[in-house]
TrEMBL record, chains A, B:
Stated name of the protein: Amidase
PANTHER family: ALLANTOATE AMIDOHYDROLASE, ALLANTOATE DEIMINASE-RELATED
Domain Peptidase M20 dimerisation residues, every copy: 275-365
GO molecular function: hydrolase activity, acting on carbon-nitrogen (but not peptide) bonds, in linear amidines
Lineage top rank: taxon: Eukaryota
Source organism (scientific name): Ophiobolus disseminans
Keyword tags: Hydrolase
C-alpha cells in the first residue's frame, strides 16, 4: 500500500487532536507496534472511545466525487442543468456495469484490499484486520440500476463502503477483525428478472444453476452466466456464505420513500424489511377484429387485465397493503385487433406476512372469477358481459418479512445518536424497509441491519432520484461508525465471553 | 397473350351450351370479330343475358389453390393438423409480402394484364376491354395481414380478383370496358400504423409524403418509402385517382363478424362502413419504487390507464358503440417500478358519425378528469387517491361513416339473388361493415360496394380465421358477376344517355 502525500494532511489533522499516547511519535520512522494491515502508528478500534469515534469523519466531497465519477458509466436521462443532474441506466452485467465494477476492484485494491469475485460476480473487497482468521464485517450494496434509475439507489451504499476504506486508511485505523465491502450482482432484477438474485445464491436460497440460467428480459436473450463470462466476472469462488462468510452485513441506502423527509428526520434505523411476493399473471382470451366484433362476442384480454389491475389496487387499499404492476405485455399488438393475450407482473407487499398471505388468497380466488366474467366488488359495473377468459397466476418470488439483528440495529442506532448529538431523538427513527435489499438475504446468514437516509420526495427508480450531499455523507458516517462499533463489540465479547460471537 | 391448350376445354364446354349466334363458328380459324383483348370467338358482356351470366362460374378448387399457394409466404401459427390450418403473419412490405406481390404480378401478366405499380406500391393489373379509353372497373383488396392474422382477410379479395381474370379468360369473355384487380399496400396498418394508408393516398386524402415517412411500429425503424424501395415496389406512377382512375371498385371480404353465420346467410350486400376514430393516449405519471411508495404518493400511469380503458368500455356500452385498445406500451418496465408513462391506442366505432362524435366528446372530457384523480362514474370505487397525472389525447385517424354507391350495391344485390336462386331472400342480407377497408377510400373517388361472406364464429385478425371453401367460391362468383353487370350497365347507359356515366 502506497502512502500518498495527501495522507499526511489527515494524519497531521488527526494528530493535532485528542489521540491516545500510542499515537505520539506519529511522524517518527520507527515501528512502535506491528499491525497486520498498516504501519506502526495505527490506532486500534478497541482503543477508540466515543470521542475518538466522532473524529472518524467521512470526506463529503470525496464521497460525492466517487458517486458521480462512477455515474459516467451508464449515464441516463437528464432532468436538470447541472452535470450530475441525470439519471442512470446501468443494467447488471452490461458494459457500463463492467466499467463500474472495474473501478470498484482497482480502487479497493489500491486501498489495500484483497478482492474476491464469486460465481455470481459478487465482488468482495476485504481489508485485513488484526484477527484475519475470522470473517470480515461487511458493508454491501449494488452498482447496477433500473433502466430509468437514479444515482443513489445501491451506488451510495457501495461508494460509502469505499469511503469507509478511505477513512480507515486516512486515519490509519486498525480494525480488530477484517472489514469488507461487497458489490452484489443484479440486485435490481431489472435485466435478469429476479431481484437480489446473487445475494440469494450466496445465502443458499437460490440454486446457482437457476441464477446462471436466468435469461435477460425482452428483447435480449443472454443468460446471466453468459453475461458474467462475457464481462469477465464469472469468478471461481463458489457463491456461498460458506466460501465467503460474513460476521455482519451493514447497508446504507436511500429510503426510496417519503417518510424521513416528511418527518424531517436524518437517519432511519432499519429494523426489518416488509414481506412481498411477485406474480406473473397470464390472461388468455381471443384475438378479434375491433370493428366487427361486438362487445358481447369478445374475449378481450386487455380489458380483463385492466379489471384485474384495478382489483389488485382495491384489494391493497382494503388491506393497507401495496399492489403494483410494473410490466405488461400484450399480443398481437395492433390498433384494430382486440388482444387475445396479456401477461403482467404483480408485486404485493406488506410489513406483515399474514397480510401478504391474505392478499394472495384474494387474488387466487378473485382473478379467475373476474376473468370468467363474474362480478367481484363491482368489477363489471357499467360493462358489457363478453366471453369468458382464462387466467393463470404464477408465483415467481416470495420474500417473507425480515427482522434484522439486534446487535447490528444497536450499532446503527448508537452511531446515529452519537453522531447527531443532543437533538438526535428528533432526527433518528426506527423504520421498516418497503423495498427488498441484498440485506434481506444477508440477514439469513449473518447479523444485519440497514441505514436509511432521506431522498427527495421519496422518489426512487426514477432519473430524478436525489439525495442531498450532506445526507449522503451523514449516512456514510453512520455506516462507518456502525462497522467500527460492531468490530469493537466483537472484540469485547471475545474477551468477556471467551468466544467470537459471530463465527459461522 | 398465349393460348394454352386448356383453353379449348373451356371453349368446347361453353360452345356446347346456350350461346348466341355470333358464337357459332367457334372452332373455325377466321376472325369473325376483332376484339381488343382476345381472339375472334369472344363473347361480349353486353351479349350476356341472365342465363349466360349464370354460366360464369368460378373454379372453387383453383381459387382455394391460389389462396393457399400465396399463404406459403408468411405462414403463421398452426391451429390444426391440415396443411392449410395455419394463420398468417405477412406484414406489409416484408420479404413475404414481396413474394406474394411478385406472384400477383406474374400471374396477372400471364393472364394478359398490364401491371402498374404506383408510388405507394399499389399494384393495378388491368385486363383490356373494348373501350380502353375509359377507366377500368376494379376489384381490389390487399395481400398484407395482421401479425397474427388469418388466410382470408384481404387475401380472398385479391385471389378472387385473379380468379375473375381466369374465368373471363377461360370463357373468352370480352368486357365492354377494361377490368382490373388492385392489391392495395398496408391495408392493415399493422406494420406502418395507418390502416388503408395507400388507398388513402390514392384518394388524395393522405399526402404521399406523410405515408412515405410512416415509420414501422416498434421494434423496427424503417419507413414505408425505404421498405417500398427495398422490395422493389416504389413505382413511378403517382399514387392518385387521377393517374389511375377507376370506374368502380368492388371488394369481396370475409365479414370478420358473426352476423352472417348467426343468421345462416351466405352473402352480405355491404351498403356502407361504420364510422371510426383512432386515438393515441399518453398517460404521464411518475416512476416510483413499488415497495417504498405508499399508494397515496403514487402517480401510477398503468393504474390510470387501466381506469381509462375500463371507462372507454363503459362509454361504449352506454352508447351502443365499440371501444378497443389493441396496443399498450409502458415505461420503464420493471416489476418493482411503478410505471411513470403509459401509451395506448383507442379505437372507437359506430355506424353513426354522431355516436362517434359523442364518444369522442366524453373521452376528451372524462379522461383528463380520471387522470387528475376525480371520480367519473365510480372510476375511483374502492381506490386510494394518488397524485394527479396528466393525459394527452391525440386523434390519429378519423373515418366518417361511408355510404356505398347505389349502382354498385345494385350490381352486388342482383348478382347475389341471381346466383342464389329462388331461396335467395333467405340467404342474402344488406349490412354495414364494422371494419374499415380500402373500399372506404375508393368510394370517395368512384362508385363502390363490397360483398361479405361468412367466417367461422366471426373470428378474424386471428390465425384461426376461417371461411368455408364453398363460401369463398360463392363470394368470388358474386364478385365476378357484379363486375360483369356493372360493365354491362356502363354500356347500357352510354347507349341510352349518350355518355359514360362514370368518367372521372
Amino acid at each position: 500500500m502506497a502512502f500518498p502525500a495527501s495522507r499526511f494532511a489527515s494524519v497531521l489533522r488527526i494528530a493535532g487532536r485528542r489521540y491516545p499516547a500510542s499515537r505520539v511519535g506519529l511522524r517518527c520512522d520507527h515501528p512502535v507496534r506491528s499491525f497486520t494491515n498498516s504501519p506502526t502508528w495505527q490506532i486500534r478500534t478497541k482503543e477508540m472511545n466515543d470521542d475518538l469515534l466522532k473524529d472518524l469523519k467521512v470526506n463529503q466531497g470525496r464521497l460525492m466525487e466517487d458517486i458521480h465519477h462512477t455515474c459516467q458509466w451508464g449515464t441516463g436521462e437528464r432532468w436538470g442543468d447541472a452535470p450530475t443532474e441525470t439519471g442512470m441506466t446501468r443494467l447488471a452485467l452490461s458494459d457500463a456495469d463492467k466499467a463500474a465494477r472495474d473501478w470498484f476492484v482497482s480502487t479497493t485494491e489500491a486501498l489495500g484490499c484483497k478482492v474476491t469475485v464469486d460465481a455470481m460476480g459478487n465482488t468482495f473487497a476485504v481489508r485485513p484486520g488484526l484477527r484475519n482468521d475470522k470473517p470480515p464485517t461487511f458493508v454491501g450494496s449494488h452498482l447496477d440500476t433500473q433502466p430509468t434509475g437514479g444515482r443513489y439507489d445501491g451506488i451510495l451504499g457501495v461508494t460509502a463502503g469505499v469511503e469507509m476504506l478511505r477513512v480507515l486508511a486516512d486515519n490509519w485505523t486498525e480494525t480488530e477483525y477484517p472489514v469488507g465491502v461487497v458489490n452484489w450482482t443484479n440486485e435490481e432484477g431489472a435485466r435478469f428478472p429476479k431481484s437480489m438474485v446473487s445475494s440469494g445464491v450466496w445465502a443458499g436460497d437460490i440454486p446457482v444453476e437457476t441464477a446462471h440460467n436466468l435469461r435477460e428480459v425482452h428483447p435480449g436473450t443472454a443468460t446471466m452466466a453468459e453475461e458474467l463470462k462475457r464481462i469477465g466476472y464469472l469468478g471461481e469462488t463458489p457463491a456461498s456464505y460458506e466460501a465467503m462468510p460474513m460476521a455482519a452485513h451493514f447497508e446504507l441506502h436511500i429510503e426510496q420513500g417519503p417518510l424521513l423527509e416528511l418527518s424531517n428526520k436524518k437517519i432511519g434505523v432499519v429494523t426489518g424489511v416488509q414481506a412481498y411476493k411477485w406474480f406473473t399473471i397470464n390472461v388468455k382470451g381471443r384475438d378479434s377484429h375491433t370493428g366487427t366484433t361486438d362487445l358481447k362476442s369478445r374475449a378481450d384480454a386487455l380489458l380483463t387485465a385492466a379489471k384485474l389491475i384495478l382489483h389488485s389496487h382495491r384489494l391493497a387499499t382494503a388491506n393497507c397493503a401495496l399492489a403494483s404492476t410494473g410490466i405488461l405485455n400484450l399480443k398481437p399488438g395492433s390498433t384494430n385487433t382486440v388482444p387475445g393475450s396479456v401477461t403482467f407482473s404483480l408485486d404485493i407487499r406488506s410489513p406483515k406476512d399474514s397480510t401478504v398471505a391474505k392478499m394472495t388468497e384474494h387474488i387466487m380466488h378473485d382473478f379467475p372469477k373476474i376473468a370468467a366474467g363474474e362480478d367481484v366488488l363491482d368489477s363489471n359495473l357499467g360493462c358489457t358481459s363478453g366471453l369468458p377468459l382464462d387466467v393463470e397466476i404464477v408465483e415467481d418470488f416470495s420474500s417473507p418479512a425480515t427482522n434484522f439483528h439486534s446487535d447490528c440495529i444497536s450499532s446503527v442506532r448508537q452511531s446515529a445518536h452519537h453522531i447527531l448529538g443532543p437533538n438526535s431523538h428528533n432526527l433518528v427513527m426506527d423504520m421498516t424497509s418497503g423495498a427488498g435489499h441484498d440485506s434481506v438475504y444477508a440477514s439469513k446468514r449473518c447479523p444485519t441491519s440497514m441505514i436509511f437516509v432521506p431522498c427527495r420526495e421519496g422518489v426512487s427508480h426514477n432519473p430524478r432520484e436525489f439525495c442531498k450531499e450532506e445526507d449522503c455523507a451523514m449516512g456514510a458516517r453512520v455506516l462507518l461508525q456502525s462497522v467500527v462499533r460492531f468490530d469493537r463489540m466483537r472484540d469485547e465479547r471475545r474477551v468477556s465471553w471467551k468466544q467470537e460471537p459471530y463465527t459461522l
